[in-house]
């Protein structure tokens, strides 16, 4: 059972917090309007609110999670606009943010306070949400003690200079204990692989043919566009909707199977992929699909996990495909083919995607690694490996040790005959 607490006035927010909300709202409304225009320009009458957000066309400082909210709101508006056969394009005038629990949370104060609870709202300033104290009216206070869990719907709106929130709450379920973490590697050979040894969505023969056809078509269109451009005529749209829809259908099915196979109570560690990482990754692959499909896969996976209430975290992706999940040795040479992982140090052999997924699972609680910038991860992993060197050596017992460590990117080559004596006491 659910209850709605409507129009809670956020009157205890100080000026600085209001300013942060105003900045967020300005960007959010602009982005939502841009999504609406983007959809109507393309005459997408029944937009898919779970589809990939067109983030490359419409760059914004909004977080991925806020972008998802804006996209869902825009999809709803466009859908009803088309179904009501309206003429004038919808223009957003009132400030209204349809948020969900990914961006707004409830927190209870540790000690008795002059207010009832905190509303924690993520803002444009990443990692710095605003905490707004909320005092409830009597009926709402009663409702929230019985229904202390926030449901998906949270609406924030501003009227006559004041901010209001509407919350939908429900009874708290049992909090499942975290039993296991399963790493999920998103790829292009397999749509996804897990650390429990499963692969999903091997690129099928019909899909491969379709993508090849689409690539040929695209090349043809590009040539034509070059011609049209020279003549100053409008160019053709390069996206192939049908091939894309076909690919997305396969992705959706693969992810459903993946989620069905997750052990009960397990959490998922998902790669934190930026658009740049995805472009890099798709260049390395066979280019069956464009980088955009990786973003779609990532968003869809997160969405499906959210939907089923499965806990997940986005973890550091750097070097997850080059690191040995057994001994921690990092080298591009560990992965001499796309499919196989073969550790140069300890000899561990595995399916390459499964090894990457195992590394992601280990990073679930690794705050230090998850907060490092990409460029520092290689060094950190090399240092950790050196610290564990005696273990790594025993893990390789019976195998011939490689005398050379290739530090990531091949910049530094260290020859080691014996581990240096200080290896156990770094610094
Ligand atoms: Zn190894």
What radius of gyration results from the CA coordinates? 25 Å
Helix-strand topology string: EHHEEEEHEEEEEHHEHHEEEHHHHEE
Q: What percent of the residues sit in helical stretches (DSSP H or I)?
A: 25-40%
Low-confidence stretches: 397-427
* Broad shape: globular
Query: Which hetero compounds are present in the coordinates?
Result: zinc ion
List strands and helices in order, with pairings.
Blueprint: E1 2-9, H1 15-41, H2 64-83, E2 95-99, E3 104-107, E4 117-121, E5 130-134, H3 138-146, E6 149-159, E7 162-170, E8 180-186, E9 190-194, E10 199-202, H4 205-230, H5 241-261, E11 266-271, H6 275-284, H7 291-307, E12 312-315, E13 340-342, E14 349-351, H8 352-362, H9 367-371, H10 374-387, H11 389-395, E15 404-406, E16 413-415
Parallel strand pairs: 8-11, 11-12
Antiparallel strand pairs: 1-7, 2-6, 3-4, 4-5, 6-7, 8-9, 9-10, 13-14, 15-16
Helix pairs in contact: 1-2, 5-7, 6-7
The structure holds zinc ion.
Can you walk me through this structure?
With 427 residues, the chain is an alpha+beta fold. It folds into 3 domains: 2-170, no CATH class; 180-315, no CATH class; 332-424, no CATH class. The chain is 39% helix and 20% strand. It has 11 helices and 16 strands. The strands form 5 sheets. A 5-stranded mixed beta sheet has the order 10-9-8-11-12. Strands 1-7-6-2 form a 4-stranded antiparallel beta sheet. Strands 3-4-5 form a 3-stranded antiparallel beta sheet, with helices on one face. A hairpin with a 6-residue loop joins strand 13 (340-342) and strand 14. Helix 1 packs across helix 2, helix 5 (241-261) packs across helix 7 and helix 6 (275-284) packs across helix 7 (291-307). The longest helix is centred in the first third of the chain and has 27 residues, at 15-41. It is globular, with a radius of gyration of 25 Å. It starts with a strand and ends in a 12-residue tail after the last strand. 31% of the residues are buried. The structure holds zinc ion (ZN). Zinc ion binds next to loops.
């Amino acid at each position: 059972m659910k209850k709605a607490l409507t129009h809670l006035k956020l009157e205890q927010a100080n000026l600085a917090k209001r300013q942060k909300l105003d900045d967020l709202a300005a960007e959010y409304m602009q982005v939502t309007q841009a999504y609406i225009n983007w959809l109507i320009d393309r005459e997408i009458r029944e937009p898919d609110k779970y589809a990939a957000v067109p983030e490359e066309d419409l760059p914004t400082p909004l977080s991925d999670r806020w972008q998802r909210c804006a996209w869902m709101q825009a999809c709803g508006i466009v859908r009803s606009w088309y179904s009501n056969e309206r003429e004038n394009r919808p223009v957003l005038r009132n400030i209204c943010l349809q948020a969900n629990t990914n961006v707004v949370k409830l927190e209870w104060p540790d000690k008795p306070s002059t207010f009832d609870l905190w509303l924690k709202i993520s803002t444009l300033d990443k990692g710095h949400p605003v905490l707004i104290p909320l005092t409830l009216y009597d009926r709402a206070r009663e409702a929230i003690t019985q229904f202390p869990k926030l449901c998906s719907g949270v609406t924030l709106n501003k009227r006559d200079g004041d901010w209001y929130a509407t919350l939908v709450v429900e009874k708290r379920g049992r909090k499942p204990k975290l039993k296991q973490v399963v790493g999920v590697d998103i790829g292009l050979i397999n749509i996804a692989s897990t650390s429990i040894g499963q692969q999903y969505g091997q690129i099928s023969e019909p899909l491969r043919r379709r993508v090849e056809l689409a690539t040929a078509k695209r090349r043809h269109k590009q040539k034509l566009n070059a011609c049209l451009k020279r003549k100053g005529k409008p160019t053709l749209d390069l996206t192939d909707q049908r091939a894309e829809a076909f690919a997305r259908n396969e992705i959706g099915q693969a992810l459903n199977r993946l989620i069905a196979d997750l052990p009960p109570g397990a959490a998922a560690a998902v790669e934190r992929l930026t658009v740049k990482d995805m472009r890099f990754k798709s260049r390395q692959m066979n280019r069956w699909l464009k980088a955009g499909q990786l973003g779609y896969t990532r968003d869809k996976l997160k969405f499906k996990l959210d939907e089923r209430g499965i806990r997940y975290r986005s973890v550091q992706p750097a070097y997850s495909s080059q690191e040995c999940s057994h001994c921690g040795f990092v080298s591009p040479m560990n992965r001499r083919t796309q499919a196989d992982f073969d550790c140069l140090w300890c000899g561990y052999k595995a399916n390459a995607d499964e090894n990457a997924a195992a590394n992601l699972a280990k990073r679930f609680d690794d705050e230090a690694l998850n907060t490092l910038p990409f460029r520092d991860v290689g060094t950190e992993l090399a240092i950790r490996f050196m610290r564990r060197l005696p273990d790594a050596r025993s893990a390789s017992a019976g195998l011939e040790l490689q005398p050379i460590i290739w530090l990531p990117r091949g910049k530094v080559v260290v020859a080691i005959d014996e581990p240096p004596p200080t290896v156990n006491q770094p610094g």
